[in-house]
Amino acid sequence: IGDGASGEGAGDAGAVQVRLGLGINTGAGIKDKSAGVKLLDRAFASLPESAHESLWEQKVVFMCRRGGKGIAGEMYKMKDFAPSIQARVWAVLGSNSENKKEQLNALMRAVEALSATPLQKVEHLVTLGEWLYCSGYPLADAEDQLMAAIDLLMDCEEVPDDDGDDGGAST
User: pTM, whole model, 2 decimals?
Assistant: First the structure.
């Protein structure tokens, strides 16, 4: 009893988040998708914003499983998160949506979210290229995404090292 009564505040919020995460990840007690979304909505309302990050992916999965209603509005709420988190959640939407158009849009948004971080963008370009190929889009579209990923990797490889090897040889 002493441990439970002494730790109110941020520590309790973290514990609640962990319990919610475990229950949601294992599906324990959450057979109704709407109940899962409601549980996550309560978690978002009761936890500080700093704890919301890890719950977004789970919320998107539950929303996709119940038909994707209202997901566009929920994704808009993520605009203030780091681009890498936005991309990760868009990718989750892309892999869990039942609607092909929504899958494509989400995978493209994942790539767009990382426009300022080329190396992180590579993984999402490859995923998009693979999805395009597997979904029956023209081969050229899939190749374009894979070539863009290769170009980004090549650009990063071409950055010269400042080891001083070239500087001393020319004088």
Answer: 0.65
